[in-house]
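Hey, quick one: can you model this chain's 3D structure?
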Amino acid sequence: MGYFAYKGRDPDGALVEGMLEATDSGAAAAQLYANGVTPVDIGETGAPRAADKHDILSRLFQRKVTAEDLLLFSRQMHTLLKAGVPIMQALGSLQDSTNNPAFRDALRAIRESLDAGTPLSGSMGNQKGVFSPFYVAMIYVGETTGTLDEIFLRLFHHLEFQEFMRNQVRSALRYPSFVITTMAIALLVINVWVIPAFAKVYAGFKAELPFITKALITFSDFIVATWWMMALALALVLAGLYRWTRRTAGRLAWDRIKLRIPVAGKIILKATLARFARSFSLAVRSGVPIVQGLTLVGQTVENAYVAQRIERMRSAVERGESVLRSATNSGVFTPLVLQMIMVGEESGALDDMMEEIADMYQRDVEYELKTLSAQIEPVLIILLGILVLLLALGVFLPIWDLGTVALHKG
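Sure thing. Here's the predicted structure for all 410 residues.
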C-alpha cells in the first residue's frame, strides 16, 4: 500500500485535491471514480508526516471545536443538502468558510476520508473529540435511510437544546457559588485585617475579654499564622479532587453528589433528564432501535450517575422488560413521567411522549431558576445574620464592658 496525491473534478466540475491510500495509481483512480471524482493527476507521495514538536504545541493552544461550531455546521449542512449540493462540495464550502482552524482541519480530514471510500459516519467517527458517538450514529441512520438532510436538521435542534440546558445548569450553580465565594472572601478579610486591628486595641486595655472575643482572636491568629499552609492544602485538595473526578469511580460519586446539592441538585437532575428525553426521542424517531438508542443516549446526559441508570434501563430492555418497568426501576423518574412513558409505549408513540417529557422538564427547570433566589435567600440571610451577630458580639462586647466600667467609676 502506498500514498497518492491527486487532483480531480467533482460532478459539478469543481477542482478537488487530496491524498488517499491505495495499492497503485490504478486502484487510487478507481476509488476516485467510485466517489464521483474524475482524476486529473495522480502521483505517488510519501506517508503523512508525524506531528513535530511545533505541531504539538500549536494543537495544544489551538482553539477547540465548540458547540457553536457544530450547531452552525449542522444547520448549514441541512440547507446545502436540501438544496441538492453534493456532500463533498458542501463539506468543501464549509471548510473554506469556518473560522475555527481545528474544525477546518476536521472537515479536511473528513473529505480525505470520503475520497478514500469511507462513509460519512465513519469519517466523522474518526474525528475523536469533535463528533459524539450519538451524532455519528444519527448520521449513520441518515445515510442508510436516505434522510441525511433531515437528520442534520434534527441534530441542529438537538444540539441547540443541549446547549440551552447546559447553560441553564450553569445558571443554577452560578448564584449560590458567587454568594458562597463572596462570604468566604469576607471572612478572610475580617480575620486577616479587621480582627487583628481590634486585638491590638484590646491588648492596650489589659482587661479580661469575653469568651467570644477570645475565640475570634484565637481563630484570627490561627488564620494569619497558617494562611499559606491552608492555601497549599486547598490547592492540593482541589488537585486531588480533579484527578479523582477524572476516574470512573470518582466521576460517578461526584455526579451523584451534585444531584444532592440542596436546591440546585434537583435543577441539575431535571436538566439532565430533559437532555435524556430529548435525545431518546430523536433516536427513536430516526429509526434507531430502543436498545441501541439507550446506549447512545447515555453518552449525552453529561452525568455519570444518570448514565449508569440509563445503562441499567438498556440492560433490562435487552432482557425483555418494557421501557416502563425499566424506567420505574431506575429510580430517577417522577410518577407523572412514568405515566407518560406508559402511554407512549402502549400507543406506539414513545418518541412523542419523550418529547413531551423533555418539554415538561425544561419548563420545570426554567421555573426553578426563576424562583432560585427566593429559595436561597432565607438560608443566606440566616447565615449572614449569624455571622454578623458573632462578629458584633466579639468586637463590640469588650468596648461595651469597658464603657460600662468607666461610667460606674465616674
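One thing worth noting: The first helix runs from residue 25 to 34.
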